[in-house]
C-alpha cells in the first residue's frame, strides 16, 4: 500500500532488517490479550537501494500459515491486515521466492475493539484508508488504534472543513475516527451533482468491503443533508447527518476488479453530497489451519506447541524451523513429516546428528501422533525413559549413538520382541539391554530368603542411634552457645571462647559468631541501602559475605525470622545463596556465599575495572540474571518480586557466572529514609518502574523494567544515570533512544568492545531491552519470554563468530 507519510514516520523505516538465509523467516507476536481478540497487524517496507543493487526484492508475506500478500515496491509502503487469531500468538512470516532478499522495516501490532470491523471469514486486508479533503496524514497519537489515515483531495470536488464542529464528536463512538480526520471532507459543487469515486486493484479474487465515515460540518438552521450511498450501483443505506454526531456505514462484501462508489443527495436535502473519510478492505481467505494443538502443554500461562518446546528445550538450530511446523506444506520444518489432516499432526520426527544434549525430556511424549522417532547420534544422557513405551502411535524408535545408561524398560523390550516396535539402541556403551542388568535392588539369597528386610531393619536401628547422637550433640552445642553468650555479656571477651565447635551452614548465627566470622568486622567489601557488607570466613574455610542490616530497619524479629527462613530455602544457580542469618536486636545480619568477582556495575565501569567484558560474556550475564529472575517470578510459590534489581545487585563468581543478590529484601526491610508502609518498597533511581510513581505498587513487570535498564547497561557500558563532568545527569533511556531512532548501533554498543560483536546480535539485544521498558507495565513481556529471546540472541552471536560487518548495521527498533 504505497502512501505519502510525514517525515517523522518515514524516518522509522529508513532502517531495515534483512533475511539472507532460510526460505521462511518469522516473527512471533504474543499479545497479552491472547486469542479471540481483533488486532491490526502492519508491516512496513522501504527498500531504498540499501544494498546498492537497485533491484527491488519481491517476496511473499504470510499471516500465521496463510498467504497475506506479495511485497514488491521500491518506495515506502506498508501492508496491513485486521485479524483475529485462533491461538495466543500471531506469526508474521517473510518467504523468499527467489526474487531478492526479503527485508522488513517495521512491524506493528495494535489491539482493536472487536465490535467495529466485521470479519465474515478470514481477515480484512487494508487497501486504502483516506482522510478526505485534507493533505495531512494522521496516525497515533491522533488515532487511538494507530490506523494510518492518508490525506486525499480531488480537483473535481470541493474541500470543506470546520474545526469547531466535532471537538467532542468521537468520545462515544467505537470507531474513534480522529477529530482531525473528521473535521475535513469533500463535497460536490451542487446538491444535484453526485459524489463518485472509483478504485481498481490487480487482485480481483477477493471481495471488497467498505466503511464510510460522516460528520456534518456545515449544517445551519433549516438545512438538511440526507444522503444515499451506493456501491457498484447497489444501495447501501440512506442517512441523515446531524451536527457533531459521527455516522459510520459499511457495505456488504462485493466482488470485481474495480470498485465504484456513488453518493447522492435525496430530494429533500438542501446540501450537497459529502464524505469525510473512507476505509476500503478486501476479504482475505484463510484456507489453512495450523498444526494440530493436541500436542500442547501449559507453559506459564500459555499453550505452546510441543514442537516449539522441542526446539526451545534442546536449542535446535535449523534454518527451516521457523513458523508453523507443518503448514504450509512446502515450508514445513526439516526432519519431520506431517499427516494430511485439515489440522496436520506430526507423524515422524528425525533429529539425528542435531547436537542434542541432556536427558530425553518428557515433552517428547506430547507428540502423540508420532510413528517414527529418530534421536540417534547425539549426546543424550541418562536412562531410557519409560514414557517412550506409552506413546500410542510409536512404531520406530532409534536411540543409537548416544551416551544413555542404565537399563532399558522392559515394556520397550517387550514391544521389540513382539514386533510392534522397531528399536535401535546400539552405540550406547553404558546401556544394558539384557534381562540381567546390574541393579541397586538386593537379590534373594541361595536359600530363597531375601535379605532386604534384614538390611532395612539394621538401617532403621542405625538411623535411630545416629538421631540420638545428633540430639545429644545439639543439646551440648546449644549449652556451649549459651555459655559463650553469657561470657560475652559479662566479660566482653567474645572470640576466644567459641573455637570448641565448628560453624556449619544454613543456621541461625549469634552476634558472637558473626564477630568471629568477620574477624571483628575487619574488611568492608561493600555498602548498600541496608548497611555495610563485610568479608568473612567460616571454620570450614567457606568464604562468605556478611551484610549487617541498618538499625533503622522497621522490621520486627518475627518478620525478619520468617523472611530469612524463606530466603534460605530459595536455591537456584543464578541466585546468591543465603547461608545463614543473625537476628539479635542490635546485630541483625544476613550471611551469603562470597562472590569472588564483585558486581557487574564494577566490570562495566572503566574507572573501576580495566578488564572489558566481551559481548558474549555480557549476553551470558544477561541470560544468567534472567534465569535467576525467572525462577523468583515463576519457580517460587508465592512468587518473589525483587523490587531493586540493578547491576550492582548482580554478582559474579569465580567462573564469571552471574547471580542475583538481595532478592526479597526490599519487601522485608524498609530503611528510615523511606515510608514505613510495606507496600511502598525501596528502589534505586534509574531502575524504578515509571508506574510506581502513580500507583505505589511494584510487581513482576516492575522487575522486567529494571531488567531492561540493566540490559542497556550491559549493551552500552553506561550506568542507569549518566552524569556529565558539568554535573548534569541523563537517564540511559533518554541517551540511547535518539541513537536507536538513527539506527546507529556502533554508537550504542560499548566502545570498549572495539566493534567485536555481531551486528544482528546487538540489534536483537537492543530490541529485547526496548521491549522491557515501556512506561505502561502491561506492555512489557514476562521475564520467561525475555529469557527465551536472549538465548536466541546469544545463539546469533555464537553462530556469527563475531565476524565484522555481518548483517546490516542500520536497523529499526520499535520505540
UniProtKB/TrEMBL annotation:
Cite a GO CC annotation.
membrane
**Per the record's keyword annotation, is Ribosomal protein included, yes or no?**
no
This entry's Gene Ontology molecular function terms read: ATP binding; protein serine/threonine kinase activity
Q: Which catalytic reaction applies to this protein?
A: L-threonyl-[protein] + ATP = O-phospho-L-threonyl-[protein] + ADP + H(+); L-seryl-[protein] + ATP = O-phospho-L-seryl-[protein] + ADP + H(+)
This protein's source sits in the domain of life called Eukaryota
> Might you give the EC number(s) for this enzyme?
2.7.11.1
Signal peptide annotation: none
Locate the transmembrane regions by residue number: 451-476
The cross-references to CDD domains, in alphabetical order and at most eight, read: STKc_IRAK
Q: Which residues bind ATP?
A: 547
Q: What is this protein called?
A: non-specific serine/threonine protein kinase
Q: Which organism is it from?
A: Eucalyptus grandis
Amino acid at each position: 500500500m504505497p502512501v505519502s507519510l510525514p517525515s517523522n514516520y518515514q524516518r522509522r523505516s529508513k532502517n531495515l532488517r534483512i533475511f539472507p538465509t532460510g526460505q521462511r523467516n518469522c516473527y512471533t507476536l504474543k499479545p497479552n490479550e491472547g486469542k479471540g481478540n481483533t488486532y491490526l497487524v502492519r508491516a512496513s517496507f522501504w527498500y531504498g537501494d540499501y544494498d546498492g543493487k537497485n533491484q527491488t526484492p519481491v517476496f511473499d508475506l504470510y499471516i500465521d500459515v496463510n498467504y497475506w500478500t506479495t511485497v514488491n515496491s521500491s518506495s515506502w509502503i506498508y501492508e496491513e491486515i485486521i485479524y483475529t487469531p485462533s491461538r495466543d500468538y500471531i506469526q508474521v512470516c517473510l518467504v523468499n521466492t527467489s526474487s531478492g532478499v526479503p527485508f522488513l522495516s517495521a512491524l506493528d501490532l495494535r489491539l482493536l475493539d472487536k465490535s467495529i470491523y466485521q470479519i465474515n471469514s478470514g481477515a480484512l486486508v487494508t487497501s486504502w484508508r483516506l482522510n478526505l479533503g485534507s493533505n495531512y496524514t494522521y496516525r497515533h497519537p491522533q488515532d487511538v488504534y494507530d490506523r494510518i489515515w492518508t490525506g486525499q483531495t480531488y480537483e473535481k470536488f470541493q474541500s470543506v472543513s470546520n474545526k469547531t464542529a466535532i471537538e467532542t464528536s468521537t468520545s462515544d463512538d467505537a470507531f474513534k475516527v480522529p477529530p482531525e480526520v473528521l473535521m475535513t471532507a469533500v463535497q460536490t459543487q451542487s446538491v444535484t451533482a453526485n459524489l463518485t469515486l472509483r478504485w481498481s486493484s490487480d487482485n480481483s479474487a477477493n471481495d471488497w468491503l467498505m466503511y464510510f465515515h460522516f460528520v456534518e460540518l456545515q449544517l445551519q438552521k433549516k438545512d438538511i443533508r440526507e444522503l444515499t450511498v451506493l456501491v457498484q450501483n447497489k444501495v447501501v443505506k440512506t442517512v441523515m447527518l446531524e451536527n457533531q454526531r459521527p455516522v459510520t456505514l459499511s457495505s456488504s462484501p462485493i466482488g470485481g476488479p474495480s470498485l465504484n462508489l456513488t453518493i447522492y443527495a435525496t430530494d429533500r436535502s438542501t446540501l450537497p453530497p459529502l464524505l469525510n473519510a473512507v476505509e476500503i478492505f478486501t476479504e482475505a481467505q484463510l484456507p489453512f489451519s495450523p498444526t494440530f494443538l493436541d500436542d500442547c502443554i501449559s507453559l506459564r500461562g500459555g499453550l505452546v506447541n510441543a514442537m516449539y518446546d522441542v526446539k526451545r528445550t534442546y536449542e535446535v538450530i535449523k534454518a527451516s524451523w521457523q513458523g508453523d511446523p507443518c503448514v504450509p506444506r512446502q515450508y514445513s520444518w526439516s526432519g519431520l513429516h506431517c499427516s494430511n489432516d485439515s489440522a496436520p499432526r506430526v507423524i515422524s520426527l528425525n533429529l539425528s546428528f542435531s547436537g542434542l544434549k541432556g536427558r530425553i525430556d518428557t515433552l517428547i511424549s506430547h507428540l502423540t501422533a508420532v510413528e517414527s522417532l529418530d534421536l540417534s547420534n547425539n549426546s543424550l544422557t541418562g536412562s531410557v525413559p519409560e514414557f517412550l513405551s506409552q506413546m500410542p502411535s510409536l512404531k520406530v524408535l532409534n536411540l543409537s549413538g548416544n551416551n544413555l545408561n542404565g537399563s532399558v524398560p522392559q515394556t520397550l523390550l517387550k514391544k521389540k520382541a513382539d514386533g510392534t516396535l522397531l528399536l535401535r539402541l546400539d552405540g550406547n556403551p553404558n546401556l544394558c539391554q539384557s534381562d540381567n542388568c546390574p541393579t541397586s535392588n538386593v537379590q534373594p539369597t541361595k536359600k530363597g530368603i531375601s535379605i532386604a528386610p534384614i538390611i532395612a531393619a539394621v538401617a532403621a536401628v542405625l538411623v535411630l542411634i545416629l538421631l540420638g547422637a545428633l540430639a545429644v550433640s545439639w543439646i551440648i552445642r546449644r549449652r556451649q552457645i549459651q555459655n559463650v553468650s553469657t561470657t560475652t555479656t559479662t566479660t566482653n571477651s567474645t572470640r576466644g571462647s567459641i573455637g570448641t565447635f565448628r560453624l556449619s551452614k544454613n543456621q541461625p548465627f549469634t552476634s558472637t559468631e558473626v564477630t568471629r566470622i568477620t574477624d571483628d568486622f575487619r574488611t568492608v567489601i561493600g555498602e548498600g541501602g541496608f548497611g555495610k557488607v563485610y568479608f568473612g570466613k567460616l571454620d570450614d574455610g567457606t568464604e562468605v559475605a556478611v551484610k549487617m542490616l541498618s538499625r533503622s530497619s522497621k522490621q520486627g524479629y518475627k518478620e525478619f525470622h520468617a523472611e530469612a527462613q524463606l530466603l534460605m530455602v530459595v536455591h537456584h544457580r543464578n541466585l546468591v545463596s543465603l547461608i545463614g542469618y543473625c537476628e539479635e536486636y542490635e546485630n541483625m545480619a544476613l550471611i551469603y556465599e562470597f562472590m569472588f568477582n564483585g558486581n557487574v556495575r564494577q566490570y562495566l565501569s572503566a574507572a573501576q575495572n580495566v578488564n572489558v567484558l566481551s559481548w558474549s560474556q555480557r549476553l551470558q550475564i544477561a541470560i544468567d540474571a534472567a534465569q535467576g529472575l525467572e525462577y523468583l517470578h515463576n519457580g517460587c510459590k508465592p512468587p518473589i518480586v525483587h523490587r531493586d534489581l540493578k547491576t550492582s545487585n548482580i554478582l559474579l563468581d569465580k567462573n564469571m557466572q552471574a547471580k542475583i543478590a538481595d532478592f526479597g529484601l526490599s519487601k522485608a526491610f524498609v530503611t528510615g529514609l523511606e515510608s514505613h508502609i510495606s507496600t511502598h518498597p525501596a528502589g534505586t533511581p534509574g531502575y524504578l518502574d515509571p508506574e510506581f510513581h502513580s500507583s505505589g505498587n511494584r510487581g513482576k513487570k516492575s522487575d522486567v523494567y529494571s531488567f531492561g535498564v540493566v540490559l542497556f547497561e550491559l549493551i552500552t557500558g553506561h550506568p542507569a544515570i549518566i552524569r556529565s563532568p558539568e554535573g548534569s545527569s541523563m537517564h540511559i533511556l533518554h541517551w540511547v533512544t535518539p541513537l536507536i531512532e538513527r539506527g546507529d548501533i556502533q554508537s550504542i554498543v560499548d566502545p570498549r568492545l572495539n566493534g567485536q560483536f555481531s551486528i544482528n546480535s546487538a540489534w536483537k539485544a537492543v530490541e529485547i531491552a526496548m521491549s522491557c521498558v515501556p512506561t505502561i507495565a502491561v506492555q512489557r513481556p514476562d521475564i520467561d519470554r525475555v529469557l527465551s529471546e536472549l538465548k536466541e540472541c546469544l545463539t546469533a552471536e555464537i553462530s556469527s563468530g563475531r565476524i565484522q560487518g555481518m548483517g546490516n548495521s542500520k536497523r529499526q527498533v520499535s520505540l
